[in-house]
Structures are given as structure tokens and as C-alpha cells.
Amino acid sequence: VVVLPWVPAMAMFERSRISSASISARRTTGRPRRRASSSSGLPGLIAEEITMTAATAYDLNGVEYYFECLTDGGRHSGWQDSPTYTDTGLMNNTVYAYRVKARDKSIHQNQTGYSSVQTAQTLLYSCPTPLAWDLDENCQVDLLDLALLVNAWLDNQTDLYAFSQLAAEWLACNRIPSSECWR
Asked: Which DSSP letter does residue 2 get?
């Protein structure tokens, strides 16, 4: 877990004030999202994520947050009610930079300035030899790959023989360095 201090600028709203905030960011392999296909021809996943949380801001009208990614390949959150944002589908071994601002929900939509820029890095590994049943292409055969295979089987995209093939590579990991396996 990478903990980042994040303090957005202060701003006076009509009847209240957005307080200073702190933010934390972490890399995770959370809820996967589908990618068009993987080397096996079955739907794949992208699982590299960075999650940020800003301290809660307060205003009598309510508050929204906007997380901005300053690195190519990352995405902005858009205005959202939650002080937590997860940027998904990020590249391996890449540093991403973010900043956040808040605004009230009054008709004036008063905003803070942006916070200072904070960074977090996704996992560092290479995968020189792909595993046939690494359906999410994260260099290891695990429960996410099994879930993808089950979904493909339920959609009649594969047969039961595929399960025995996946079992032959079960819990294989070919990340270099191997210390990045099972993170």
C-alpha cells in the first residue's frame, strides 16, 4: 500500500468550508473488467488499478470530487459523490500522477483549487513467456482466469476439456522477478 498525503486547496463555500484532506493510493487487482480477447481467444481482463481516497469534504449543499490523472493511459473520475476513486486498466510498471479537487452542489458549484500532485506505481514485472491459460494476461494462472473460463463455458464458448488444460497450469506464475508473483 502506498500512502500519499493529499491536501486540496481550501475554499470558502456559501455557508461552509471544505476542510483539508489526505489521500491514500494503492495498487490492487480488484474487480476485473473485460478486454476484447486474450492469447487463448477467450475474453481477457485488465487488473492493474490504483485506488485513491480523499478525506471527506463538507458543505451544507453536499460535495463532489474530481480526480484528474496527469499521466497518459490513466483516466479522470469525472465529478462524483464518493471521495474514493479507482483508476483501472493501467499499464504494468508505470508511475501515474493524480490530483483532486472538490466542489459544492449549490447552484454556484464553488470549487477548491487542485491538490498537490501525488504519484503511485503499478506492479513491476515482465512476462517473457506467456502462459496459455493466463486469460487475464497478468503472468499467473489463478482464480481470475478460472472465473473467465467458467464464464466462457457458461456462454458455450469452450468445452470441459479447457478446464483440464487450465488445471495443468494452475497456480503457475512466470513473472520476472518471481518476487512479484501473488501480489
From this structure: B
Cell numbers representing residue 147 in the block: 472465473
pLDDT tens figures, 76-109? 999 999 999 999 888 878 899 999 999 999 999 9
**This prediction's pTM:** 0.56
Tens digit of pLDDT for each residue in 124-171?
777 778 888 888 777 788 888 899 999 989 998 888 888 988 888 888
In whole angstroms, what is the distance from residue 130 CA to residue 126 CA? 10
Q: Where are the beta strands (DSSP E) in the chain?
A: 11-12, 17-18, 23-28, 33-35, 44-46, 49-54, 63-69, 84-88, 95-104, 118-121
Q: Report the candidate in 78, 102, 115 with the shortest Cα–Cα distance to residue 16.
A: 102
Length of the chain: 183
How far is the C-alpha of 32 from the C-alpha of 15, rounded, in Å?
41
**CA 162/CA 180 separation, integer angstroms:** 27
Q: Partners of 66 in the beta sheet? A: 101
Q: Which neighbouring-strand residues pair with 126?
A: 176
Task: Collapse the DSSP code of 15 into the 3-class scheme (helix H, G, I; strand E, B; otherwise coil) and give the result.
Answer: coil
> What's the per-residue H, E or C state across 101-142?
EEEECCCCCCECCCCCCEEEECCCCECCCCCCCCCCCCCECC
* 159 touches 166 (CB < 8 A): no
